[in-house]
Design a protein that fits this description.
heterodimer, A: 313 residues, Heme Oxygenase, Chain A, B: 70 residues, alpha+beta, flat
Chain lengths: 313, 70
C-alpha cells in the first residue's frame, strides 16, 4: 500500500518525514488543524505496526521522533475517548451485567438501513469504509495476547483461532471479506480506500490499534472485543439480507452470514471466558473493560450517524 | 463460573439464558433427524428454539431475554 494523501498540516508533516526519512523535523511538528488531520496522522503511524507502506522505510517503525508525535496524539485521543464514556455499571454477575449494558445501549442502526432501504451505491460505500478494518480483522486483538495470564491468553486464542479460519486461509475472516470485495467489483488490496475513509472510521481503527499496542490498555482492548462481538450477530444477519435484496454476490453475503454464526459463539467466549476471567483475576481492570466496550459501541454509533445523515441528504 | 472444581475448560458449557457451547468436533441431529457437523473450534447450539440458523445460535435469545425482562 502507498501512504495516503494528507488532510492537514500535521498529517502532511508526518507523511513528509516518513517518506523522506528525515524525521527530526517532527520535533517541531505543527498542531493538528482538525480531528481528521490528527486521526489520519495517528492512523499512518499505527499502520507502520500493521502492514506498513511501500513508499515508507520499515526502519522508521520505532523511530523516536515519530513515536514522540504518536504518544502526544494517543494521549489526546485516549482522553477524548475516556471523556465520552459513562461510568461502568455496578459490579454484579459479570456476564449478565455486561450483556445488559450492551442491550440497553440504543444506537442508530446502519444494519437496519442496509437491510431495508439502502441503495447499492450506499452499500458499496459502506463496504469500502469497512474494508479499512475488515481486511485486517482481529489483528489488533492478537497484539494483546502476550500481555495476558495463561487462562485469559488461552481463551483469547480459542476465539482468535476461529477468526483466523482455524488454520484454513480461505476461512480467515479478512480473506473472506477480500473475496467479497473482489466478487463485488471492489478493490481488495488492503488500504485501497483509505483516502475516502471518514474521520469516524479512522477513530474506530485507531482506538483498536491504541488498545492493542498499549499493554496498559489490555482490558479496554478485550472490552472492545466483547462489545464488538456482542453487537455483531444480529446486525450481520440484517446486512446479509440487505446484500441479498440488492443482488450482491454470494461471497460478500457469505462474509456476513459467517459472522451471524461465528459471533454468536464469540460473544459468549469474549464475555465469559475472556473478560469475565480477566476481571476475576484483576478486579482493578473492571472500569477499563467497560471503557473499551463503550468505545466500541460509541464509535460505531458515530459512524452510523454520519452515514445515515449523509445518505438522507 | 462453573460448578466443577476439577475442570475450568469443560467440553460443554450451558450459558445462562443463552446457547450451549460445544468444544471440539461433534455431529448434531436436529428435531427433523438431519445431521449437522460442527465446523469451528467452539460451536454455539441454539437453546431458545428461535434461531434462524438452527441448530446453531444466532443471538436471537437476547431479544427474548430483553422482552421477558420488560
Amino acid at each position: 500500500m502507498l501512504s495516503p494523501a494528507s488532510r492537514g498540516p500535521l498529517s502532511h508533516a508526518v507523511l513528509h518525514a516518513l517518506r523522506s526519512g528525515e524525521t527530526s523535523g517532527l520535533l517541531d511538528a505543527p498542531e493538528p488543524e482538525t480531528t481528521e488531520d490528527a486521526q489520519l496522522a495517528l492512523w499512518i503511524m499505527y499502520e507502520q505496526h500493521h502492514g506498513g507502506f511501500d513508499d515508507i522505510s520499515d526502519d522508521l517503525e520505532w523511530d523516536p521522533h515519530v513515536l514522540g508525535v504518536r504518544r502526544r496524539l494517543e494521549q489526546d485521543f485516549e482522553q477524548t475517548l475516556r471523556a465520552r464514556a459513562p461510568q461502568a455499571p455496578e459490579p454484579g454477575d459479570f456476564a449478565e451485567t455486561f450483556f445488559d449494558f450492551v442491550a440497553e445501549h440504543d444506537g442508530p442502526s446502519l444494519a437496519a438501513h442496509v437491510h431495508r432501504s439502502a441503495t447499492k451505491t450506499q452499500v458499496r460505500e459502506f463496504l469500502r469504509h469497512k474494508s479499512i478494518y475488515h481486511l485486517k480483522e482481529s489483528d489488533h486483538t492478537t497484539w494483546v495476547v502476550p500481555r495476558l495470564s495463561g487462562p485469559v491468553k488461552a481463551a483469547v486464542m480459542e476465539l482468535q483461532y476461529d477468526e483466523y479460519g482455524a488454520g484454513n486461509p480461505h476461512r480467515l475472516h479478512a480473506t473472506m471479506f477480500a473475496d467479497g470485495l473482489d466478487a463485488s467489483g471492489l478493490e481488495s488490496a488492503y488500504g485501497a480506500y483509505i483516502n475516502e475513509a471518514p474521520v469516524e472510521v479512522l477513530e474506530q481503527n485507531n482506538a483498536m490499534s491504541m488498545f492493542g499496542l498499549n499493554r496498559r490498555l489490555r482490558a479496554a482492548s478485550l472490552g472492545f472485543l466483547a462489545a464488538f462481538e456482542t453487537t455483531s450477530s444480529v446486525p450481520s444477519r440484517r446486512i446479509a439480507q440487505g446484500l441479498e435484496r440488492l443482488g450482491f454476490p454470494a461471497e460478500m453475503i457469505e462474509y456476513y452470514t459467517e459472522h451471524v454464526e461465528a459471533d454468536a459463539v464469540h460473544e459468549q467466549l469474549a464475555v465469559r471466558t475472556i473478560c469475565g476471567v480477566l476481571i476475576e483475576e484483576e478486579p482493578a481492570l473492571y472500569d477499563d473493560v467497560y471503557f473499551g466496550a463503550w468505545t466500541s459501541m460509541d464509535l460505531e454509533d458515530r459512524y452510523a450517524n454520519r452515514m445515515l445523515e449523509a445518505w438522507a441528504a | 463460573m462453573n460448578q466443577t472444581p476439577n475442570s475450568d475448560h469443560p467440553d460443554i458449557v450451558l450459558c445462562p439464558g443463552g446457547p450451549m457451547l460445544l468444544r471440539g468436533d461433534h455431529v448434531i441431529e436436529d428435531e427433523d433427524g438431519n445431521e449437522h457437523q460442527t465446523t469451528r473450534p467452539v460451536t454455539a447450539v441454539c437453546r431458545c428454539g428461535k434461531s434462524q440458523i438452527k441448530p446453531w445460535c444466532d443471538g436471537t435469545h437476547k431479544f427474548l431475554r430483553k422482552r421477558s425482562a420488560d
